[in-house]
Write a structure and sequence with these properties.
- By secondary structure, the protein is of the alpha+beta class.
- The protein has 2 domains: 172 residues, Orthogonal Bundle (Hypothetical protein af1432); 85 residues, no CATH class.
- It has 12 helices and 4 strands.
- The chain has a 4-stranded mixed beta sheet.
- Helix 4 runs antiparallel to helix 6, helix 6 packs parallel to helix 9 and helix 9 runs antiparallel to helix 12.
- 46% of the residues are buried.
Length: 267
């Protein structure tokens, strides 16, 4: 199945930050026709049937890149994620779980919007099983642990279910950080009549850029540039609640503002 130019761009950005087994796993995911078909159909359902924003291949790659950027900042700051801290895995294992979950978290949109995080888990289970069999075939303990962690990361991405790991927290926040203008552009073009819930669509058009970088006092800084004040809705009703719900919150600085005007600091 042909991949778009922007999809390939994000794939390259992700791969540039990886080596060893995480790179092998990501190559496996990007080349898997079933995963690609699920991504494509999730977007058809989201955009054309339901009139929501992007939930397809580009979004899931952007969410994965966001989570990966934050993952690396935590490691750089000497923060150990749960698998390593609990003595049941390595940072490499955690990275694989985060990437796999981020790239599978919205495949449940092929079925429905309501509780799609649980649909994503159901659809992901056989994919997770064959992926882990491929890369951890001789280690049943790692397969059990990583499968459980990936499932937590997926069902926790909507901040509707309590999560307990930094890994799941990164997927949650990485998903929330994908709210720039381009994500709502297609749904805005397809549906030009106002409908209930459109504040989510129009508020995202006010988001110019989300920057993820090293923080001043904490390992991670998320800085959001806006062109219009309606973008504050995205910050305060979408992104901030996800960060507040995430175990990663204590490591994040969050600030936002209209370009050229005063910056509002949230964390």
């Amino acid at each position: 199945m042909k991949r778009s130019v922007i999809q390939q761009k994000f794939e390259e950005k992700i791969k540039m930050r990886l080596s060893g087994k995480p790179l092998d796993v990501i190559e496996y995911i990007f080349s898997d026709p079933q995963i690609q078909a699920l991504h494509e159909y999730a977007n058809i359902v989201s955009l054309k049937r339901l009139g929501f924003n992007d939930h397809g291949p580009v979004h899931m790659r952007k969410a994965a890149l966001n989570a990966l950027l934050m993952f690396d900042l935590l490691v750089e700051a000497g923060i150990r994620l749960n698998l390593e801290k609990e003595g049941v895995g390595t940072a490499e294992d955690s990275k694989i779980a985060v990437l796999a979950a981020a790239l599978l978290h919205d495949i449940g949109m092929t079925v429905c919007r309501d509780k799609h995080e649980f649909m994503s888990v159901n659809l992901a289970i056989p994919i997770i099983d064959r992926m882990l069999e491929q890369f951890y075939h001789s280690n049943i303990n790692k397969r059990v642990i990583l499968k459980s962690l990936i499932m937590e990361c997926i069902f926790g991405h909507m901040a509707t279910q309590t999560i307990h790991t930094l890994e799941a927290g990164l997927v949650l926040v990485g998903d929330g950080c994908d709210m720039e203008q381009g994500r709502s552009r297609i749904s805005t073009m397809l549906f030009d009549k106002p409908r209930v819930g459109d504040i989510h669509k129009y508020s995202s058009t006010g988001i110019e850029k989300v920057h993820i970088s090293k923080g001043d006092k904490r390992p991670i800084k998320i800085h959001v540039d806006m062109t219009e004040s309606v973008g504050f809705f995205q910050i305060e009703e979408v992104l901030f609640p996800k960060i507040a719900f995430s175990p990663v919150k204590k490591y994040i600085e969050l600030e936002a503002g209209i370009i050229g005007k005063e910056i509002k600091k949230y964390l």
